[in-house]
Amino acid sequence: MGKPALPEKRAVFATLWETSRGRFHEEAESATRTPFQRDRDRIIHSSGFRRLKQKTQVFVAHEGDHYRTRLTHSLEVAQIARSVARRLGVDEDLAEAMALAHDLGHPPFGHAGEDQLDACMEAYEGFDHNAQTLRVVTRLEQRYPNFDGLNLTWEMLEGLVKHNGPLITDGTPVSALPAAFRDFPQLERLELDQFAGPEAQIAALADDIAYNNHDIDDGIAAGLFTIDDMLHLPMVGDVFRSVRIEHPVLDTQRTVYEAVRRLIGLWVDDLVTETSARVAKYNPQSAAEVRALPEPLVAFSEDFDAQQRALRAFLFERMYKHYKVNRMRSQAKRVLKELFELFLAEPDILPPPLRQDAEQAPEARRARLVCDYIAGMTDNYAIDLHRKVFSIEGIV
In whole angstroms, what is the distance from residue 266 CA to residue 278 CA? Predict the structure, then answer.
């Protein structure tokens, strides 16, 4: 059996843990772990990471155990990111840590929850889940005696804030960024006008690979569409047909699993091939040079990106806008809206010590505290809390 083709040494453009820019709060280095391994471990042990187990992607948690949660999704992204990082010869631990942390700022109920919290916070500078991730890892996690947050490395923080690319483009002022970004006092030290390092770019596209393919699995399992409905799609249809030809008596579930497995492999191969071509084109000699390039170093090919857009368009119409999903979205948004309005108006019913902070705070500050509280909830906790505070049966 042949061995996988792996680089023999670190790529020259990899982020080097030995020359990490360090942490904003000074700490002694670990004797047994690199700084990026330590970042990964801090994320895994955080309360925000644990709560991802009952925060969902598309479906609400009580709909069933089969569907992806933010936790299982993050683990799948981490596996893909680590595989790509290994093939490209960059730091696997940093790529994995980025993948594990990228969804920490998501509220309950997926994008419906984010949309509703943003609407609730419209008068108070809004809500953005990427900015909330920074808030979680720099402020809301309170585990250590000498600082708030997880005190992650500079490389982790800059990768998290640039999950979707540079924050400052075409002269955009820092004042235009979401409040949760601007509240971080070291924000402007994260080189906001440049791309993230290579490992962060890998984690961002591993996120795309994971949700593109696993939404296929979840959508079919939920009965929102069938394999036959997807046969017209470029690449996706070809893969499903090839599985059926090779395994004509395979049941639907295994057919889907095998097709998704192959599709992930195609996505990863294209990502590595296109990125390798860009490495040859630009010849970056450091991670700093990767950040300064005029375009991302890590990317899909144009042809593959077009096929990916066709799949996303299909999923948008047949899954994300399906009436069953819309009903869940509607219910979820009402739950969060009513909780937000209640806690903002009556901070004395918040749990301590949040109650004391909210009661003494100006309205805008109180709104942000309530937003933090709700954003940290799981789907099930939000549903249960809503029942308790709005139903007479909930009185205990």
Answer: 18
